[in-house]
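We treat protein structure as text, and this decision shapes the records that our systems exchange. The remainder of this section carries one protein's record, kept here as part of the documentation:
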Amino acid sequence: MAKLAYFNGKICKPDQIKTNPYDIGTLRGYGVFDVMCTSNGKPFLFDEHFARLKKFAQELKLPMPFSKNEFAEILKKLLKANGFAKSTIRTVLTGGVSANAFLPGKPTCYILIEKFVALPKVCYENGVGVVTLEFGRHLPRVKTTNYLEAIRNQHIKKRKDDLEITYIKEGKVLENSTSNIFIFKNNVLVTAKDGVLLGTTRNLVVKLAKKKFKVEEREMTEKEFRAADEVFLTGANKNVVPVVRIDGKKVGNGKVGKNTQVVMELFADYYKKY
């Protein structure tokens, strides 16, 4: 269990974090968050995560409670104090206590350090399944605390290996509930660029994959998604995970594809050397 956390400018024990019931993060879901993990004891893609969190805050007109250097120092202290071999870092920023439950007040910010829990190896070796849902997030470029659709639709994951819910809107494949989605068709890698959260892992995978493949960041149709040769997903706490079933139907031959394996290796190599 984590020993220390951060709450509104102070290092404290996690159970000392007490949010006000009139915080509009609770009353209205008005807040943003970020999740990153460590590699070799350091926050992986720290610069990218901080820049993105800052943009999220700007979208909701919330001032950042710390500078980039201050954030780095806070994380350094927390990671050392908690002592996990590998950690998940969860940063939450809300609109704070509101006088009328609509106007943001002084932002509430807390940072939680958790022991990293990896997906079972079988997910990477044999692949996982995804199920589709007609939905598109409001403010897709922002990682808000509103996960209503993802949470209330967990029941649609019928199979043991169903890992994610893939959002499709008006025939266009967007993203997963907690990750980005990619397909290979005729050795071309395709992923959506508009109407999705541009994940830090997603962006890195695009960069790395360009060394080996043609990459297209564009609109992805449901038809080509279901007819893909290979599919995989990416996320900060998942890395690169092969997808072998969509709504219970096989992707390709139902096994982890060769191109996906190449991408997994490219990412793993980068991650280890970070």
Summary: The domain at 122-273 is CATH 3.20.10.10 (D-amino Acid Aminotransferase; Chain A, domain 2). The helical segments are 24-27, 46-59, 68-82, 121-126, 148-152, 200-209, 222-226, 258-273. The longest strand covers residues 31-39. The chain has eight helices and 16 strands.
